[in-house]
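pls design
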């Protein structure tokens, strides 16, 4: 790839998550000079379970990080359990359409970071506070904890700063305009070992109306835990100590051994993710020389299982478009968005639909889910669902960041602001 037109071009990448790291790796591949700023004082390498689908693996291959990744699937049994300990064969993430590699977020972060050239500048505890742009570049004021704010000029600003992106707020407007609540909460952490009554390799699901527990097993380490529940008032969820609130949600009935151990783990884990599940819906992801990538732009939610894959694919394609249009950054960003949007729209729609498989809203929905899971194990019935499974698998496996990829359906009009 010709990188001669990119010499000396500086890009500010805001956020050292998977999307930010991947973007910086890709920008370096095409000869740019990325500078990364990260709000946290250090890398965030902790990990809950993530699935990496074909779209993400293809992008990871081009980014040079696939060799650092592997499928950690435990190949163990999957169970649907209840609080009394009764169990029946259940479904695991591997049974959903597609051929995901199972791993933790930390695995991807580590592989991405290892591919980041060591001379890429990273400034921790640093956030943007102002972004002004003109036709030639963008002036960004950066504030560092304990230091004086500085204003620097960049040829490109990439907001890879996650669900509640500051770049989005500074350039596109307030969160309320773009966040679409699912009215679900997610609590995720590492378990210290297998749940009582289970092997470390078992996947365990406890599903009740409005709340659920999932464990995700790996071949070579203890499982991770995901508790999910529905709420009518997301803001109120953050007003109480987290562990007490989670116990309240999963009460008042006796927990039983497995759920009890899971709640204990939430209380004692060093690193617990506790957050509302929101989608980001925007009618554009770029403006001039500023572009959003990953959760900042399109957070598809954990229910889609495609956030990591989409972040890697988006970063990869961004570099491709900038390389193809080296003298027209805004034009490259527009073309990038046009290519990516149909696939991301599909993933977002799917994320909303998949929510019910993770947390059924009512007993009827729960029974329907159980029946569906059982029916899908019968060859005759499963055959009826082949078109649905094929479509979902193709959504996740197709290499939509490849420059020659042709979207199967014409692009739909961009969704309006929420
Ligand atoms: C429980 C759970 C399970 C999931 N399961 C899956 C799955 O199976 N498959 C999958 O593909 N995806 C899954 N996801 C989603 C996936 O983890 C995310 O989509 C992905 O990690 C997003 O990466 P990102 O880099 O875009 O954003 P983030 O990981 O949010 O990174 C943003 C970075 O920006 C930094 N930052 C924020 N604000 C600022 C600021 N103002 N200035 C500087 N830095 C800032 C943050 O500290 C952070 O380091 C799951 C998510 C959760 C919560």
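designed seq:
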């Amino acid at each position: 790839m010709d990188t001669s037109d990119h010499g000396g071009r500086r890009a500010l990448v805001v956020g050292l998550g998977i999307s930010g790291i991947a973007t910086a790796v890709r920008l370096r591949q095409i000869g740019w000079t990325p500078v990364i700023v990260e709000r946290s004082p250090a890398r965030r390498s902790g990990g809950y379970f993530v699935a990496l689908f074909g779209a993400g693996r293809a992008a990871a291959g081009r980014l040079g990080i696939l060799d650092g990744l592997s499928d950690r699937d435990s190949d163990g049994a999957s169970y649907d359990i209840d609080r009394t300990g009764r169990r029946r064969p259940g479904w695991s993430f591997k049974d959903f359409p597609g051929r995901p590699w199972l791993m933790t977020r930390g695995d991807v972060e580590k592989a991405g970071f290892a591919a980041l050239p060591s001379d890429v500048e990273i400034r921790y505890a640093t956030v943007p506070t102002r972004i002004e742009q003109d036709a030639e570049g963008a002036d960004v004021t950066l504030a560092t904890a304990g230091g004086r704010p500085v204003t620097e000029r960049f040829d490109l600003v990439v907001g890879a700063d996650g669900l509640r992106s500051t770049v989005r707020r500074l350039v596109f407007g307030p969160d309320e305009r773009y966040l679409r609540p699912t009215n679900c909460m997610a609590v995720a952490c590492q378990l210290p070992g297998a749940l009582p009554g289970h092997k470390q390799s078992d996947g365990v699901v406890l599903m009740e109306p409005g709340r659920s527990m999932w464990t995700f097993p790996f071949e070579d380490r203890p499982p991770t835990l995901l508790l999910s529940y529905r709420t009518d008032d997301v803001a109120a969820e953050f007003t109480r100590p987290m562990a007490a609130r989670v116990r309240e949600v999963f009460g008042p009935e006796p927990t039983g051994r497995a759920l009890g151990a899971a709640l204990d783990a939430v209380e004692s884990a060093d690193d617990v993710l506790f957050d509302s599940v929101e989608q980001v819906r925007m009618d554009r992801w770029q403006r001039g020389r500023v572009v959003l990538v990953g959760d900042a732009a399109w957070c598809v939610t954990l229910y889609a299982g495609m956030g990591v894959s989409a972040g890697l694919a988006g970063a990869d394609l961004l570099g491709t478009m900038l390389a193809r249009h080296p003298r027209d950054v805004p034009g490259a960003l527009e073309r990038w968005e046009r290519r990516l949007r149909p696939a991301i729209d599909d993933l977002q729609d799917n994320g909303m639909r998949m929510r019910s498989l993770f947390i059924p809203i009512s007993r009827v929905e729960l029974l329907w889910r159980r029946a569906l899971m059982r029916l899908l194990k019968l060859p005759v019935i499963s055959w009826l669902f082949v078109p649905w499974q094929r479509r979902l698998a193709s959504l996740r496996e197709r290499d939509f960041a490849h420059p020659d990829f042709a979207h199967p359906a014409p692009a739909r009009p961009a969704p309006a602001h929420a």
